[in-house]
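Tokens for chain A. Residues wanted.
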């Protein structure tokens, strides 16, 4: 149970002053909390920038194109010549050193007259620009009298917003959320407090929501570092507790000679690469040891992880137990199943598929067969977690494309057997420094070498204006019997708009290619999605227009062209994943990254790296480096996936400190009991490391 002390933070955000039902909905969307944002979510929605209004120059000293707050007298009103004119309403103001024109387009005359009466002294704050030799301030951000000036924050935090939400609504909510923060005990140990020169948790939140200087919200500044450390500490505590729990049950030695695996290898039209052989050897050694396996299999898209997993599962079956493979989506689960089935069956393995879409009767049948041990290998989605799914003796859980699953989901699957070995496969090559944050200390096998015969993918970066040429190129490719993916823009925070964009593009392409166009997007029902994928896989459609649902794992060797519209909106890792969908067959493939000009510097750098390299590990490192140089992806200064605050490219160095404190605390008390650990328990609840919290309660 969450300590009552934290209750005020977990109350609905709608209870904050000024929020109300309408804004509450927008805040839910902004903070990605469909179940309803809470006060704590608002508190952790940190500003990503500031507006500095501290400069109070005389007009003559003011820096051009910078924000200034100036004290002026109102000299003259210059309304447009006629009320219907499009010309702006101007107001001339001055001080002893010069004058400035305040410029209002589509102005509300009454408001201007009331706020800026002739002869009055006012403070105006905004950007001073030079236009046609005159100093101007277009739409001052603030027009104030002395009293209002006193209330203006000199440095204003700027928050990520969503359409319909005003900056003032969020600022006000954030300040109100701060006021609800209870006094919390210190959870950082003394050594690290000193090392980090850490300020208090509440103090840090205060600094961020009420900055006094732009540097206050710097990701590497003291306030952010404090919160990032807290989050990493919670994360490391949770990972260590889970790991301890997993290791607390002795493993079983699973002895296999590789007889079944040999049959699969014999049925394969290729030999394993050196990297695959090595990874398989690592896994086999783990399985044979009476210790539970916790291994990460990293490998770029197309590096051949699936076959390694199948061979490992074959060994487990030979050892007399069952294996399960869990994929993040229905499409991927089906694809794994379809591809593994012939090989598995050739080797005499009984393999089944179970997904959320099974009919109740089918599901009962599969469950019964699993419980009776009549199925050796089951492939599925998170439907595998359902309580009704019971194994006779599950020995190996393989989780594909892990970062989509939470830690507790991994746990749930390994909980379905005795001392279940765990193999996590990820296609996002995670830099070594980050493995610790996401996986705790799992053992790692990496497939750096690609299967032979892959041709390099010709990657080009083009402005959207060259769409016609791209369409022509796609036309030539499909005339030659090839296929193409066409990925549609990612529209920030709106799946609806994603879908609309994809539908519009599909419609436009139908003018050229008629029925050869297929469409698949995130809002489609499962069976429709599969049907669309199937038609593309079988070649009934030649161009598949898609939102990013094709991102992971889908395998269509005939696809040779990957078009990504608005490539500048995608992250580096994501573009690399998308590109990995082509270049799987024998024909030469190309990837066309279309951008809307002008291209920002960071986006240009990203696209350039893709053009240069196909090495996922290098791309991952570069991604981290680029982001470390201060790029803010999107308007939110978002933490790394799964983190609210911590950005590993900035705060990665804190990991080992957090790790040490977590380990020491758990050494003293494995379930963080006792008064000495009260603060750490609060921390886990505060950062919602629920799976670990449950372990604490289980004792
Ligand atoms: P991943 O899951 O790592 O993205 P896959 O397991 O889907 O990669 O493999 C990609 C493709 O490469 C598949 O068509 C697979 O049959 C093929 N493949 C795997 N290993 C080899 C190999 N050693 N030699 C040739 N082709 C291979
Ligand atoms: Mg795969």
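Reply:
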């Amino acid at each position: 149970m969450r300590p009552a002390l934290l209750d005020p933070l977990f109350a609905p955000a709608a209870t904050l002053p000024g929020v109300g039902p309408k804004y509450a909905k927008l805040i839910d969307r902004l903070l990605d909390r469909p179940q309803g944002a809470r006060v704590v979510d608002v508190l952790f929605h940190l500003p990503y920038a500031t507006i500095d209004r501290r400069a109070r120059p005389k007009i003559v000293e003011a820096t051009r194109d910078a924000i200034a707050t100036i004290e002026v007298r109102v000299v003259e009103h210059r309304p447009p010549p006629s009320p219907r004119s499009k010309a702006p309403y101007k107001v001339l103001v001055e001080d002893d050193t010069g004058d400035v024109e305040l410029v209002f387009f589509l102005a509300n005359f009454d408001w201007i007259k009331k706020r800026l009466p002739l002869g009055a002294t006012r403070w105006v704050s905004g950007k001073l620009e030079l236009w046609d030799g005159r100093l101007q301030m277009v739409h001052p951000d603030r027009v104030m009298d002395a009293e209002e000036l006193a209330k203006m924050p000199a440095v204003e935090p700027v928050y990520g917003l969503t359409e319909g939400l005003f900056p003032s609504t969020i600022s006000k909510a954030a300040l109100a959320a701060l006021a609800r923060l209870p006094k919390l005990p210190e959870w950082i140990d003394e050594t690290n407090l000193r090392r980090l020169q850490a300020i208090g948790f509440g103090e840090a939140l205060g600094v961020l929501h009420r900055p006094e200087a732009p540097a206050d919200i710097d990701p590497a500044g003291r306030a952010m570092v404090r919160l990032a450390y807290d989050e990493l500490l919670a994360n490391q505590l949770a990972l260590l507790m889970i790991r301890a729990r997993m290791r607390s049950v002795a493993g079983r030695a699973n002895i296999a000679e590789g007889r079944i695996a040999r049959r699969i290898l014999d049925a394969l039209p290729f030999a394993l690469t050196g990297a695959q052989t090595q990874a398989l050897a690592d896994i086999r050694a783990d399985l044979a040891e009476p210790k539970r396996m916790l291994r990460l299999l990293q490998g770029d898209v197309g590096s051949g992880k699936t076959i390694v997993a199948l061979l490992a599962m074959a060994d487990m079956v030979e050892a007399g137990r069952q294996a399960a493979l869990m994929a993040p989506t229905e499409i991927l689960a089906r694809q794994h199943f379809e591809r593994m089935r012939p090989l598995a069956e050739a080797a005499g393995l009984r393999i089944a598929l179970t997904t959320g879409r099974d009919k109740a009767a089918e599901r009962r049948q599969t469950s019964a067969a699993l419980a009776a041990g009549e199925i050796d290998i089951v492939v599925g989605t998170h439907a595998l977690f359902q309580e009704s799914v019971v194994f006779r003796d599950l020995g190996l859980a393989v989780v594909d494309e892990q970062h989509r699953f939470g830690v507790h989901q991994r746990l749930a699957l390994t909980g379905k057997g005795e001392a279940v070995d765990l193999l996590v496969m990820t296609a996002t090559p995670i830099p070594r420094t980050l493995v610790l944050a996401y996986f705790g200390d799992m053992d790692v096998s990496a497939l750096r070498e690609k299967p032979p015969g892959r041709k390099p993918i010709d990657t080009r970066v083009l402005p959207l204006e060259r769409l016609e040429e791209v369409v022509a190129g796609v036309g030539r490719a499909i005339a030659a019997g090839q296929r193409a993916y066409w990925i549609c823009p990612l529209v920030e925070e709106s799946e609806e708009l994603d879908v609309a964009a994809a539908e519009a593009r599909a419609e436009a392409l139908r003018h050229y290619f008629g029925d050869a166009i297929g469409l698949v997007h995130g809002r489609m029902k499962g069976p429709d999605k599969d049907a669309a994928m199937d038609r593309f896989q079988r070649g009934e459609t030649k161009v598949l227009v898609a939102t990013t649902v094709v991102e992971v794992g889908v395998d269509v060797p005939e696809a040779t062209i990957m078009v990504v519209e608005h490539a500048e909106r995608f992250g580096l890792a994501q573009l690399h994943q998308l590109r990995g969908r082509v270049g799987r067959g024998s024909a030469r493939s190309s990837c066309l990254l279309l951008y809307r000009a002008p291209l920002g510097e960071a986006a240009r750098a990203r696209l350039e790296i893709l053009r240069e390299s196909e090495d996922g590990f290098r791309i991952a490192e570069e991604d981290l480096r680029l982001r470390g140089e201060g790029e803010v992806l999107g308007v939110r200064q978002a933490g790394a996936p799964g983190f609210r605050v911590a950005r590993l490219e900035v705060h990665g160095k804190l990991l080992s400190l957090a790790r040490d404190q977590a380990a020491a605390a758990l050494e003293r008390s494995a379930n963080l009991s006792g008064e000495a650990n009260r603060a750490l328990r609060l921390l886990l609840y505060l950062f919602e490391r629920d799976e670990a919290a449950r372990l604490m309660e289980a004792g």
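Residues 270, 272-273, 276, 299, 301-307, 427, 451, 555, 584 surround adenosine-5'-diphosphate (ligand 1) (CB under 6 Å). Confidence is low (pLDDT under 50) at residues 629-638.
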